[in-house]
Structures are given as structure tokens and as C-alpha cells.
Amino acid sequence: MALGFGQKNVGIDLGTSNTLVFLEGSGVIINEPSFVAKDTATSELMAVGSAAHKMFEKNPPTISVIRPLRKGVISDLDATIGLLNYFLNVAYNNHPGKPVAIIGVPSGVTEVERRAVKDAAQSAGVKDAYIIDEPIAAAVGAGLPVYDAPGTMVVDLGGGTVDIATISLGKANATRSTVYAGDAMNDAIKDMVLQRYNFRISEGDAQILKEEIGSANVKASKQLGSATVKGIDLISGLPAQRDVTAEDVALAIASPVNHILTEIQTTLEESLPELVSDIIDRGITLTGGGANLRFLDRAIADTVHVPVFIAPNPQEAVVNGLGEMLRSSQLRFKE
């Protein structure tokens, strides 16, 4: 792959929840929510990233605030182009020149979806875009020896998807991707609070509950107590506060967690026995923001009987892996 000569190239982790940008020579310079705000009448872009996220669920009917990627794929092409164009302008401070971009996508996306990502990036101003499976980038960013013959395994837990792969010699041997990820957990928490507490909360508040008291172990969750959340009491119709227990949150997300455990087990079953033997020795590495869910590493280890480790700074593993690919001529990557 020929990178742009004399131009600082970029690695982009185009995530459902957050977009991270690695600028060659500078490191990770952007980590903002993947949100776009548009005028509903004119479709004019009004805000992107953190500025748009502040409007989310507070916007009037004249403003549409969306995430242009859902479940790891583009759902609004124009908004995605606007998002990429904004972040590229921030990265380059409006300096002339077109970079080459390498962009991480979930391993389960189709060729049509890959082309959509590439077209969006080129429409946003990059010279060329190369699409990389996120598990490979995450493994590189976590410091795993992905180009060695012995097998490694990575589980990248994002907002829209969880991507799982066993890797050897720079290639994925077996991969699986599931949408039972961070967003699915947030939806499950919202539904639980609605049904159990007669209380309506926002997606952002569900995320806060997950971060503050969420866990992958119902029994152990009892030690985490409860957290207070604001919302609408459906009986009175008035704003109120409720204390939600960690046990209820753990019960709510048990189904997405069990789907993840099943997908990990299936990926191991589909991998070459020789690689599984290596993985038993080397363990499984968790990356992505979801890696921080309490007791998830223990739940995975108990299910598949393999040691589990959380990568340092797991949310930036993919974008750091893309950056490492930009830096090192020894790390070969292609579509």
C-alpha cells in the first residue's frame, strides 16, 4: 500500500459510538462521539461530534440529531461524509493536501458496506482509503504479536458491534461479529427501567447506569449497590429521580452478555485446533470500551476456560493499531 508522500496520513476508528482519529506523527488527536446535527428543513450540517452530542435527546423538531452509523455500518451516507469531513478538517486545521486514510470497520460488514465507507472517506477529502478489519487493528493496538505463527485471540467490544477473531500470521483464522454490544445493553437497561420502575430514561442515562453499576455477574452485582437516575415518572407524568439497583442492571444486560459469551465460544470452536492450543497459553485479550464492563473478563474465562486480559487503554486499541500500521513498514495491511 502506497501512503501519501509528504502528507501526514490518518487512521480512523469510525465507531458507532465514538470516532477516533490518529494523525501520523502526532498520535490520537480526536476522540469524540459519532453524532451529527442537521437542520430538518434544509439538511444543513449544524454540529458534529461533541457539540452535536450535547444536543442529543434535547433537540427541537427543527433539528435532527443522529448517529450516522448504526450497528457498525453506515445508515446515513451524507451525514457520515459530513462527520468525516469535519474531523479531517480538525485534524489538518484546514491545511491543503489529501491524506491517505486507513479505516477500521467491523469484521462482519459486507463488501457493499466496505465500499460505502471508502466512498464516504473519499467524498470527505482523502486521497485514498484502505479498509481494515477492526479485530486485526485492535490486536495490533493491544501489542499482540499478530504477525507471528502462534495464534492470538481478540474480542473488540464496541457500541454497535462486538468483533471476535483468532489471528495468526497477520490474518484472521475465524471471526464472528454480533450486534449484541454496548448499544444493545443500553436499550435493555432502558426497557428494564421502564417496565420495572415505571420510569422513562434517556439513552445517555442508560449508558451512565451501565458505567456506574453495570456488571456481567448478577450475583456479584449486589455488592455494587445502586445509582440514582433522572427521568419521567410514568404514573405522575412528572420529572423525578429513582434509585436503580446494580442487580437489576445486571439482569437487564444478561441477555446481551450471554450472546457475547456464546459468540466467543463459537469462534473458538471454528478455529484451528493448533491455534486454540496457543490461545489457551496466551489467553484472550479484550479491547474496546465494553472491555471495562465489570466482571466480563471473569465471565468469559469461566465460560471458555481460557485466561482473559484487558488491553491497556482498551477504547483506543483499534485507532492505536491503525496508527502503528501507518508507522511501521513491517506491518503489512491491505483490503
UniProtKB/TrEMBL annotation:
InterPro entries the UniProt entry points to: ATPase_NBD, MreB, MreB_MamK-like
Gene Ontology BP terms: cell morphogenesis; regulation of cell shape
Cellular component annotations (GO), alphabetically ordered: cytoplasm
Pfam family for this entry, one: MreB_Mbl
Keyword Nucleotide-binding attached: yes
SUPFAM superfamilies: Actin-like ATPase domain
GO-annotated molecular function: ATP binding
UniProt key word ATP-binding: yes
UniProt keywords, alphabetically: ATP-binding, Cell shape, Cytoplasm, Nucleotide-binding
Location(s) in or outside the cell: Cytoplasm
Positions bound to ATP: 159-161
Superkingdom of this protein's organism: Bacteria
NCBIfam families according to UniProt: PRK13927.1 (NF010539)
Family per similarity comment: Belongs to the FtsA/MreB family.
Record's subunit section: Forms polymers.
Functional description taken from the UniProt entry: Forms membrane-associated dynamic filaments that are essential for cell shape determination. Acts by regulating cell wall synthesis and cell elongation, and thus cell shape. A feedback loop between cell geometry and MreB localization may maintain elongated cell shape by targeting cell wall growth to regions of negative cell wall curvature.
Name the record gives this protein: Cell shape-determining protein MreB
Species, as recorded: Oenococcus oeni (strain ATCC BAA-331 / PSU-1)
